[in-house]
Specification:
CATH class of the largest domain: Alpha Beta
Bound molecules: nicotinamide-adenine-dinucleotide
Largest sheet: 7 strands, mixed
Strand content: 15-25%
Number of domains: 2
Distance between the termini: 69 Å
Helix content: 25-40%
Number of helices: 15
CATH topology of the largest domain: Aldehyde Dehydrogenase, Chain A, domain 1
CATH superfamily of the largest domain: Aldehyde Dehydrogenase, Chain A, domain 1
């Protein structure tokens, strides 16, 4: 049985769904454990078909009025929603560091401010979208971004608040209503988000949250033919299942998936800077889709680069994410620890050498040591597959052409990093097949910029105007400039 309130380190949160502006419990529930130490945080209501259907119905009922409100009147509601997130900042920090293992310091300084901006930025940006006029010789085209309808948003466990609001912001600003299915391993901040929405006065049904496992609750949601859009962030195998079902209903999907991004260090790179950035790839215990996990280093500078990087890695503090000084926290779940360990063990058995790490960290069973594996073959599992843990590989190259060939020789194409003289690095970055790539930097994510992947890393782009391209139905109202007379000879 679930209780009506769950208390985590002094922060109260509902374990129930949020449907049509009300908390709704389920008869069935699942256990939620903390990745920090596997302690039981509580039991969470598990969504059945009836909860999913009720949430989609509530979103459908709320849609006409929310859409008709217009961007200008939605903006103050979304600004209040952001303010209510700010008012609960410490609760969001506590919950996501306890259920997802995200560093408390990163939650406070990075994630919570970004979650607020995800709402205010898109609320503001939506104001400029109404009725753009396109003038041609023949006509004025009033190009409208009309709200699409009920939107399903499905998020992964590595950054639920950040990734949820990144989609909820533009979806609501565009005039859509939302059913959010948060990750079953880290659902708590999505529940608190519903409290913030409620306190901000979001009309009932505009945002709904249904919790539960992907194979049941998630699958029931994507199968609902009343959806107008599905926006998903997660793994490739899940995306294939969702795309198959959405294809059957002809519902447009945005799919933000995994990565195996290259981190290229050219011979003219600032090695110390490159090494400091490479150590950042262990952030969030490597559970970051856009991390550059394949270090590709010019062989003339490889030894110096590794020595510099070792200096940074040795100083990394692995430990409890709630402590201010911690830089690398836990892996989300024992199953994920086993998965990471399996990748590393098989790579070592196949001849790889661990330059550092290679095993579970002494801090505890949920913590994996920052690892760098070399002597790895391009076609090996460890180079080709996403590990989603603090595990990087190192390969060397002798020419620019070889660097680009290695960078592109994987099925993924999400991100990338390239360090070198800026013109040189930009030229190499242009040749890498990827959705985005940082030159002499990492992690700059402007909300105005497009985000998404190529190849198996995803379909579609979100961010800035690209979010609205996806979340809206674009309509052209054509008004002729000269009086129009019907004629069969007209082209
Ligand atoms: P996952 O695919 O297992 O789960 C993601 C979400 O989908 C969860 O909420 C899950 O419950 C749900 N789900 C699972 N099966 C479903 C189904 N059949 N129908 C509907 N929903 C279903 O991914 P994960 O393990 O939670 O997250 C890690 C993955 O996410 C990694 O591959 C990572 O690279 C990727 N990711 C990508 C980005 C990006 O922006 N490209 C960002 C973060 C994470």
């Amino acid at each position: 049985m679930t209780t009506d309130t769950l208390s985590v380190a002094g922060t109260d949160v509902s374990p129930h769904h949020y449907i049509g502006g009300r908390r709704v419990p389920s008869a069935t529930s699942f256990e939620l454990h903390s990745p920090i130490d596997q302690r039981l945080l509580g039991r969470i209501s598990a969504g059945l078909d009836e909860h999913v259907q009720a949430a989609v119905s509530a979103a459908r009922d709320a849609f006409p009025a929310w859409a008709a409100l217009g961007a200008a009147k939605r903006k103050p509601v979304l600004d209040r929603f952001a303010a209510e997130i700010g008012a609960r900042a410490s609760g969001f920090c506590i919950l996501e560091s306890n259920d997802a293992g995200v560093l408390l310091s990163r939650m406070r300084h990075g994630v919570v401010p970004r979650a607020m901006l995800n709402l205010t930025y898109f609320a503001e940006h939506a104001l400029g979208l109404q009725n753009r006029a396109l003038e041609t010789d023949q006509a004025t085209h009033l190009v409208r971004h009309d709200p699409a309808g009920v939107t399903a948003i499905i998020t992964p466990w590595n950054a639920p608040l950040m990734l949820g609001t990144w989609k909820i912001g533009p979806a609501l600003a565009a005039g859509n209503t939302v059913v959010l299915k948060p990750p079953e391993w880290a659902p708590l901040t999505s529940s608190l988000l519903a409290d913030a929405a409620h306190a901000a006065g979001l009309p009932p049904g505009v945002l709904n949250v249904v919790q539960g496992a992907g194979a049941t609750t998630g699958a029931a949601l994507v199968a609902d033919a009343r959806l107008a859009r599905i926006s998903f962030t997660g793994s490739v195998p899940t995306a294939r299942q969702i795309a198959r079902v959405a294809g059957g209903n002809l519902v447009p999907c945005s799919l933000e998936l995994g990565g195996k991004s290259p981190f290229i260090v050219l011979e003219d790179a600032d090695l110390d800077n490159a090494a400091a950035t490479a150590a950042l790839m262990y952030r969030n215990a490597g559970q970051v889709c856009l991390a550059g996990t394949r270090l590709l280093v010019h062989r003339g500078v490889a030894l110096a680069f590794v020595a510099a990087m070792r200096g940074y890695v040795e100083k990394l503090r692995v430990g409890d994410p709630r402590e201010e000084a911690t830089e690398v926290g836990p892996i989300i779940h024992p199953r994920q620890v086993e998965r990471v360990k399996g990748f590393v063990d098989r790579a070592l058995a196949a001849g790889a050498t661990a330059l550092w790490g290679g095993a579970v960290h002494p801090f505890g069973a949920q913590y994996f040591a920052p690892t760098l594996l070399t002597d790895v073959k391009q076609d090996s599992e460890i180079v080709q597959n996403e590990v989603f843990g603090p595990v990087l590989t190192l390969q060397t190259f002798a020419s620019d052409a070889e660097a680009v060939a290695l960078a592109n020789d994987v099925d993924y194409g999400l991100g990338g990093v390239c360090y070198g003289e800026v013109g040189h690095a930009t030229a190499i970055a242009s040749a890498v097949k990827t959705g985005f790539i940082w030159v002499n930097s990492f992690g700059i994510r402007d909300l105005a910029a497009p985000f998404g992947g190529c190849k198996r890393s995803g379909i579609g782009r979100e961010g800035g105007e690209w979010s609205f391209e996806f979340f809206c139905d674009i309509k052209d109202i054509v008004v002729p400039k000269k009086p129009f007379r019907a004629s069969f000879s007209q082209r």
